[in-house]
Amino acid sequence: MEKYYFSYREIHEIIQQKAKEIISSGYMPDYLLAIGGGGYIPARILRTFIHRPIVTVSLSRYDDITGKTVSIPIKQQWIDKISIDLTDKKVLLVDEVDDCRTTLEYCVNELLKTYDMELSIFVLHNKLKEKHGKIPDAVKHMFIGKEIENKWINYPWDALDITAHELLSERNND
Ligand code: 5GP
Predict the structure, then answer these.
(1) How far is the CA of 97 from the centre of ligand 1 (A)?
(2) Phi then psi for 41, rounded to 5 degrees?
(3) Number of H helices, E strands in the chain
(4) Do residues 6 and 155 make contact, with C-beta atoms less than 8 angstroms apart?
(5) DSSP letter (8 states) at residue 36
(6) Could you tell which of 68, 75, 97, 129 is best to mutate to test the pocket of ligand 1, judged by most ligand atoms within 8 Å of the CB?
(7) pLDDT band with cut points at 50, 70 and 90 for residue 1
(8) How would you classify the pairing of strands 90-98 and 3-5?
(9) N or C, which terminus of the chain has less Cβ within 10 Å?
(10) If pLDDT is split at 50, 70 and 90, which confidence band does 173 have?
């Protein structure tokens, strides 16, 4: 199979299992920081198990006009000290997939320009591949829901036909 199709149920279960491990490790963030668009739903599921407020930023790897991938992610929405002061807080960044790692590296470095805080990362999926970005040393924990092969992932929230998507996820992810 060239692509993955993951169901809401699988995603929920991966996050639940990882949340259990995170809580058992003794780590508890003050905030979940969703990196949108893909991190919104995983962050909301994570909050079911780790009861912390969600704040958001939104980054894009694609230029809306040309549709091409950009080397530096574009800030669609960002946060500042006036909207929320995360200074001295423990913040858990949440994204759906670590692909080349460019987004995570950029997001961590940009946040650390504004805030002196403790940052950790939760990604639902990590693709096992060569990474272009580096997780900055300042990151305290890197939590990974599931390691997967380097294939394109179709997430249920992108599905135009969720019934067809769920059928593909049942057939193809064994
Ligand atoms: P990176 O910066 O790690 O290369 O890419 C991270 C972002 O690219 C993700 O947050 C996601 O929006 C997008 N992305 C990368 N790989 C995939 C994939 O296989 N499926 C989907 N749906 N998005 C992906």
Answers:
(1) 6
(2) -70, -45
(3) 4, 8
(4) yes
(5) E
(6) 97
(7) low
(8) unpaired
(9) C
(10) low
Atom index in ligand 1 nearest the CA of residue 4 equals 19
CA gap 37, 18 in Å, rounded: 21
Instruction: For the full predicted model, state whether its pTM sits above 0.85.
Output: yes
User: Is the Cβ atom of 95 under 6 angstroms away from ligand 1?
Assistant: yes
* H-only helix segments in the chain: 8-25, 40-49, 102-114, 162-172
Top CATH class of 3-172 equals alpha beta
How far is ligand 1, taken at its centre, from the CA of residue 101, in Å? 9
- Domain locations in the chain as residue ranges: 3-172
Assess whether pLDDT exceeds 70 at residue 99: yes
pLDDT of residue 96: 98
What's the whole-number average pLDDT of the chain? Answer: 96
